[in-house]
Design goal:
alpha+beta, 13 helices, 46% strand, elongated
């Protein structure tokens, strides 16, 4: 028995020596170059393209199975600019033999040097990558149909170790002749370190994209023996154009099954202006402040799976503004959204473009919509509110301080809810110029025409500073209080005006109307008729109280009961405003209740009336002082006194027209201030 084992060992040893000798000696005596035509032919058959190898071919068998090839060329079809679609200067791979017996792959070297890939699309749309290996693909599909499903799980290898994996000096060129576009990636270098199934893989990538530097460094993995299952960590940093740096860190969980992720994203502060300049692109918006959008950063945590996604711990720094945010989404077909935004402060005027120059309009009614514009509005395609009917939304927005169009708003608090086609904003609250606004908005899109309800409750607002900042106009001063309820149907301005219905009251105290002096019209009669000393100061009508109650129905606004009260004068305004036809029909009746001469005059002048009729269109109001009403009031100055002031009958007509124009000018300037 011992002799049998002895001979077995001797014979086995001899075979082992012969195998080793063959592995070492055979490559020295066999000319592998004679197989070059066969290799080239096999590649041609597989790809359908011409293929050539360089003459420098090196093959080794032991202890490393390896091959080294040079000057690989995969050709282009006829009609393309470049001869080769793919070329490689050097290719080398070496792996250990013995570990293969136990399903362990140990690669010493995998190097691809100087690969060039040229992709081109002709004007007729045909691309050079189309049709590669078409026959082989059909064959593979046919074979796949006959394959039996494998019961094996995971990789068919027990372990993987790669010492050196690198791609150096790579190049990718894309040309689209039809679009006249050329893109190029050059100086491409990729290195993977510590490639294995059990440990994270080091990644180092750098390239020039159209001459602009891009790089990526970090780690990914471990992959595990069953790729796509378990948790794979990612920690990478991407840099681009020496301006942008993005960090992504976290885990990808069961990428082939649950497809979940939990990642932290951070974008370091960068200048969008400088980034676009580095891309040779002009900045798309000309902001009022040329330094706006010069510093932006972002960080957030992203979690999700195919059913839902969420953002948390979010923070955006935009110049001097800081936004803290969180958001989530699920039921994507609806979708079901939720968000919470908290902004400390922002000056929106910095980011708005410069307003275009106003075009002058010729003739009366120049601002009224033309028939062509009205026709275009009526033929406008109907809005599809289907997505809004499915939308589920719960959003909150808070802003500490906001500046827009010169107006400063503080403590903005907004809560938006949407479900079943009803969108509610409640509350919509803010502080404004020492006052506050509490509002509620409801938009119902369950039917084809949206219905809107708005309530506004404001109090304590200083109207003068608000008008100066927001409109750059001095129209009215005083403390404002409002209570308004409105409803409307439709989506176009014309439809909204036709259906506007509601009621409300606008109330000012301790203020003044700027641009018209109602008292001076009759207080200094000579001045009113162009005979006295003209005041250098801007005309104004001071008041203790200005109340404007109104009701509206289907675009017709009734202002009965509007009144102004001051120590000297009372004004009552009655009439209607037609929003649909943009017409005015108002009567303004001022009434003096104190003296006319000012200080030192003890005589009461109550009962003196100067009615003013305001008619016509919004764009061209007609102002008519009612002199007959003034003369028929029965108080001084009486008809005879006025006649003496006016002079002879020949001069009366001219001077009466003068006072009409003076009053008309003051009142019309007020309306222009309100509408411009």
């Amino acid at each position: 028995m011992k002799s049998i084992f002895k001979w077995f060992f001797i014979i086995g040893g001899v075979f082992l020596v012969l195998i080793i000798a063959a592995v070492i000696i055979i490559p020295q005596f066999i000319d592998v170059k004679k197989y070059k035509p066969m290799i080239e032919q096999k590649v041609v058959e597989a790809t359908g393209r011409s293929f050539t190898l360089g003459d420098d071919i090196d093959v080794s068998v032991f202890p490393w199975v390896g091959v080294k090839l040079t000057d690989l060329q995969l050709g282009n079809p006829v009609g393309y600019n470049e001869k080769s679609m793919v070329s490689v200067k050097n290719f080398e791979v070496r792996l250990k033999v013995m570990p293969l017996l136990s399903k362990r792959i140990e690669v010493k070297t995998f190097v691809l040097e100087g690969p060039v890939i040229y992709l081109e699309k002709l004007k007729n749309g045909k691309a050079n990558w189309q049709g590669i290996g078409a026959k082989q693909e059909k064959k593979a599909v046919a074979e796949k149909k006959t394959e039996k499903p494998s019961s094996e799980k995971g990789l068919p290898i027990a372990a993987l170790q790669v010492d050196n994996f690198s791609i150096t000096n790579g190049q990718l060129i894309y040309v689209d002749q039809g679009a006249d576009v050329k893109k190029e990636i050059s100086d491409l270098n990729l290195t993977l370190e510590n490639i294995s199934l059990e440990n994270p893989i080091g990644i180092s990538f750098a390239a020039m994209i159209d001459g602009k530097p891009v790089s990526l460094k970090g780690t990914a993995g471990p992959i595990g023996k069953e790729p796509g299952k378990g948790t794979m960590a990612i920690d990478v940093v991407v840099k681009a154009l020496e301006e942008l740096e993005i960090t992504l860190k976290g885990n990808i969980i069961d990428s082939l099954t649950s497809q979940a992720f939990d990642l932290e994203l951070a974008i370091s502060s960068f200048s969008p202006r400088k980034l676009l300049a580095a891309l040779d692109q002009s900045f798309p918006v000309q902001t009022k402040d040329p330094k706006a959008l010069d510093a932006v950063s972002l960080k957030a945590r992203l979690k999700g799976n195919p059913a839902s996604v969420s953002l948390s711990e979010g923070e955006i720094q935009l110049d001097d503004s800081k936004l803290i945010f969180s958001a989530s989404a699920k039921e994507f077909l609806k979708p079901n959204l939720k968000f919470d935004l908290q902004l400390d402060e922002i000056d929106l005027d910095r980011y708005l473009p410069e307003p275009p120059a106003k075009e002058e309009t010729s003739g009366a009614g120049g601002t009224a919509p033309s028939k062509k514009a009205e026709s275009a509005e009526s033929s406008k395609k109907k809005t599809d509110y289907g997505p809004l009917r499915k939308l589920i939304l719960d959003g909150k927005v808070k802003v500490g301080k906001l500046k827009a169009h010169g107006a400063i708003i503080e403590n903005v608090d907004v809560h938006i809810l949407a479900k079943n086609g009803i969108i509610t904003i409640d509350p919509l609250g803010l502080n404004l110029y020492q006052g506050s606004v509490a509002s509620k908005v409801e938009l119902n899109v369950q039917k084809s025409n949206p219905r809107t309800k708005v309530t506004i409750d404001a109090k304590g607002i200083q109207a003068g500073p608000l008008m100066k900042d927001a409109l750059q106009k001095e129209l009215i001063e005083g403390t404002l209080k409002t209570n308004i309820e409105l409803s409307m149907t439709g989506e176009t301005p014309d439809m909204i005006k036709q259906t506007l219905t509601g009621k409300g009251e606008v109330f000012f105290i301790d203020g003044a109307i700027i641009g018209i002096d109602l008292a001076n019209v009759v207080r200094n009669v000579k001045s009113s008729f162009g005979m006295g000393e003209q005041l250098a100061e801007k005309p104004r009508t001071d008041f203790a109280e200005l109340k404007i109650p109104f009701t509206a129905k289907n675009g017709l606004v009734n202002t009965n009961g509007a009144s102004l009260i001051s120590p000297l004068i009372r004004v009552l305004v009655t009439g209607k405003i037609n929003l649909v036809k943009e017409l005015l029909d108002l009567r303004v009746e001022p009434k003096f209740v104190a003296t006319l001469k000012g200080q030192g005059d003890t005589e009461q002048r109550s009962g003196l009336m100067v009615p003013v009729l305001i008619t016509g269109s919004f764009s061209d109001p007609k102002i008519r002082p009612d002199l007959k009403g003034m003369l028929g009031s029965g108080v001084t100055p009486d008809a005879e006194g006025l006649k003496q002031i006016l002079g002879t009958e020949e001069g009366q007509k001219e001077k009466v027209e003068s006072v009409k124009e003076d009053v008309k000018k003051q009142i019309k300037s007020l309306f222009q201030g309100l509408t411009n």
